[in-house]
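Troubleshooting entry. Yesterday's outputs looked truncated, so today I'm pasting the complete records for two proteins to confirm everything comes through intact. If either block looks cut off, that's the bug. Protein one:
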Amino acid sequence: MHDTAPAAAAAAWLAMFSDTLAKGDLAATLELFAEDCYWRDIVAFTWNVKTMEGKAAIAAMLEATLESTQPSSWQVTSATGGPSEPLQPWFSFKTKVGQGQGIFTLEDGRCRTMLTTLQALDGHEEALGFSRAMGVRHGADRNRETWSEARARDEASFGAGADPYCLIIGGGQGGIMLGARLKQLGVPTVIVEKNPKAGDSWRNRYRSLVLHDPVWYDHLPYIPFPAHWPVFTPKDKMGDWLEMYVKVMELSYWGCTECISAKFDAAEQRWTVELKRGGKPLTLRPKQLVFATGAYGPPKFIPLPGATGFKGEILHSSQYSDGTKYQGKKAVVIGAASSGHDVSVDLWEAGAEVTMVQRSPTTVVRSETLMELAFDTYSEAAVAAGIDVDTADLLGAATPFALQPAKQKALYDKIRARDAAFYDKLRATGFLLDFGPDETGLMMKAYRTGSGYYVDVGASQLIIDGEIGIKAGVEIETLTPTGIRFADGSEIAADLIIQSTGFQSMHEVVAKIVSREVADEIGTCWGLGSGTRNDPGPWHGELRNMYKPVAQENLWFQGGNLALSRFFSKFVALQIKARMEGLDTVVYRTPL
């Protein structure tokens, strides 16, 4: 017999919640929440990406937004859980401007966490399914314009003086996915990219690069990878997919185009953007400007005393593509996170003698272990159980960042126990291993700092076997003409030094293109404000400045891995579309 108790309990709670909101009785609303409660809202109430922690924060948000949001039609769509575990209902709702979807959890009859998301704007829905375009106007017409003719006209118009509503700087995965979302919402958009073709940002990386995340986690909007696609995507295959995607989604994508400068006119609410397209100057005046230059900004070089006297070659990992010419050479890779490991393996495969200089501990987790323990909602089994990528994304978003550490620590306790022998062998080489300042592992490092971790796809065994040398925990004193001397007096010979030392914040790109003042006003991108190393407080509860309004009007940041770019591209696009249509988008912010 099908158990309807969870759905009935969920519906009863949601009915009380809806009734108290409709009456504006916030005191009664708060009584429905547990003392330790969280409400994460993505655009629906706040026109922001924001998590309210505790009853006081929820009350302040509702006082500021309830009248303008006018939520209604709350309905439970499904519910899971039972007597021994929290009840997790999914629900739909309406706002003054659109349709929403969310998830909440009930513990002892009260709400512990709530997620609300705006999914569509009324009257401006995507043309999908039953509402898709016809693609043809039947009947004879001497003035007919074919699809290819209309497409060519649209493409030519932007280069001939017409201005897009939105300009996206950066044509990698983040810019492409956002461009696709905006296209489906009817927002005139141009994507500009320095490389000649879509996908080149992947093709130009080192030859052995393969995605470390599985295919089920990496789908793009609208066009998922086909069923035969490999679990881990090689970088050139990814580049070809992005190039195909741009064509199929009919995006206005300008390769060989560099953004020189951008200036905002507050009175006109419009940007003046100077471009160089194919070597020729061009000016566009979009309303909205998006920086989609990756999760991070320009390469970060560390100072190396004695560099001017070094007779070899010094590169940043972003400049490295192929180790073939370094066969038989002595290579030193400074940095022991993802790119440091990957570049070291590529050099080893090319026949170089490789030493990795590790300046601080690294969180390492074996790919096989992650696949088994950490990707339960992104897997073939999940798909078979009816959990598609959009469902998995919302499930992940339903846990606020403040509650993630405990879950991640429990996961990494299992990982450390499972792979204890592996970690013992790695430590025995002198490799500095950690799992974060609070033992919460890779994901929390990724959110907090975007650095200091590696998903092991082969480098660790080379380190264990002594094929890749390790010099850990000792400061570099100076470069010599033929290598590196360390503070302990030891030296390593080197023909090549590669700095795998990470990247600066995305706001440094704004400093270069807009101004230093605007960049400083916006502040650092990424990080949660957790107070951990390289992620100073105060606590934000969401990624700094990503996917939401920032201190500079009409400027946005879109980036991150494929999964984050996919999920948040929807909400960045909805925010931009709402502004194009003149909807009231009062952003709810609270002092930090």
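Protein two, checking that the full record survives here as well:
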Amino acid sequence: MHDLSFRWPHPRFATPLGPVSIRVHTGENVYGLDPDRVSTERDGTTTTIVADGLTWAGGQQTAPGRAVVRIVETGDGVRVEVRAEHLDGVRCVAVVLHDQPTGDVTALREGDLPVPVTGRVVTYPNGWFDLATPLLGLCRPDGTVTVARSLDRQVRGKRFAVVPHFADPSTCDFELIADADATQPAAELDVAPWHLTRTGDLGPVLAEHTAHVREAYALPSWETRTDVPAWLRRTALVVSLNGMHFTGRVFLDYGGMLDTLRRLSEQIEPERILAYLPGWEGRYYRWYGRFDVDERLGGEAGFRRLVDGAHELGARVMPMFGANVAARDLPGFETWAAPGQLLNPSGHMPIGSVDWDASRHFDHSWGALINPSYEPWRRHLAQQIVRLYRRYGFDGAFLDISAMYNNDPRGSTTDGLRALVELIRADCPDLLIAGEAWFDALGGIIPLVQAGHRDTVPTLHDQPDPALFTGTNRSFGHVCLGDPAHGSTGVHEAGYNPHWRLPVREGVLPTLTVVDGTLDAAAERVALVVQDAREYAAKYLT
């Protein structure tokens, strides 16, 4: 974690949880409140601070600008509201709670995490790990937790930073940083209220925050949402049938996929099975943006036999599509993708590659990240999905990296995803739309999502508060889940993963990763996952 190399004497303001200060960040510099131009007024439980000037250079210089801070004492803590102004445009605002005891951070999907002496930054929104909703706890030695949560009603980036003091790492500052929406640059930023509380029981705080999120994003209930087909409500096992690796190495062709489903249907009712197909279109990821069957895997006839054969058994089929990645060397890229390439708030393109071929580097320049808010890309992708659905009659479409968030000045990635899903469903109302990973605002857009992971260790979205996720969504194992026989992640770039089994909980569908030889080499472990699916069906399904 990077930090400033000097002490900045920011004005501090008392709260029942400790002193707070304010920083204002533009694209050019960072500013504090000018202590010589600060006025404070107290009215009952509310303190209003007005700064009619700012400082910079660590407090050595003054600058025009303004900030209004309201600190409201509530029954269970304090609410902090900030309005900041600067002619350069406000990029983000930090509220800093000072002089807290350093402890683990809590209320994450992956459980408690320690804070090293160098500090820790936790981000929202993150679909895979860190925060699915903008709430984080800081553990205290007495067993209580200081909880900070944003009451925002739109998707805007947040960072929670725990910064131990250099001279005494047992004490820290707890920074709450809120970004402006890059699509609406302005000289002023009204920061959504921060609510801070200290508690010995996270349960009521999580419940209150969940109620806020469900109302803010109009999240539907799982039982009543109309984008969940009836067959999904009977599904108890997702089988990840891996096709072709990026390098062209084939794990299962279409015939092998169908054979796997036939064999599994001898162990569990096939109508309980959803077949998920990563790498079905040929070299995994290499030709994202151009989706079709692959001749080496069996071609059109083989894929048709796979879908029809699965349906004869009673199983369902869901191929994988890329929601926001395209190969630059595809015909037409300059028209339907290039103008919509993802941008950071600075206007520069982020790098979006992994190590596909064990070259131990990430500079695979053939792939580009595309913002789904760019309409030509949305239509290009949706038309392919619709065409293939009408030709082959599969049951679901999985949108890879659907939880991608980037504060792109040219359009909201979340709004773009919603528009993409609506475009597909307009032509295919019975088609299930699923996606990769999850954060709170996605709950109403996509009903079924993959679990997240932190360095291939599964992170499950029904933690820390099952009500937030399971009330609206269901999840299944990430494509990086290892197969029970070898730990192979199939087409996924992780390579090998010892995690091959998920817990049986209402929000988590049992998932089985299959590569060539899995069923024969690990029959006992496969049977355990199938037993998990039977248990899931008995507990949670009709």
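Both blocks look complete. Sanity check on protein two: The chain has a mean pLDDT of 97.
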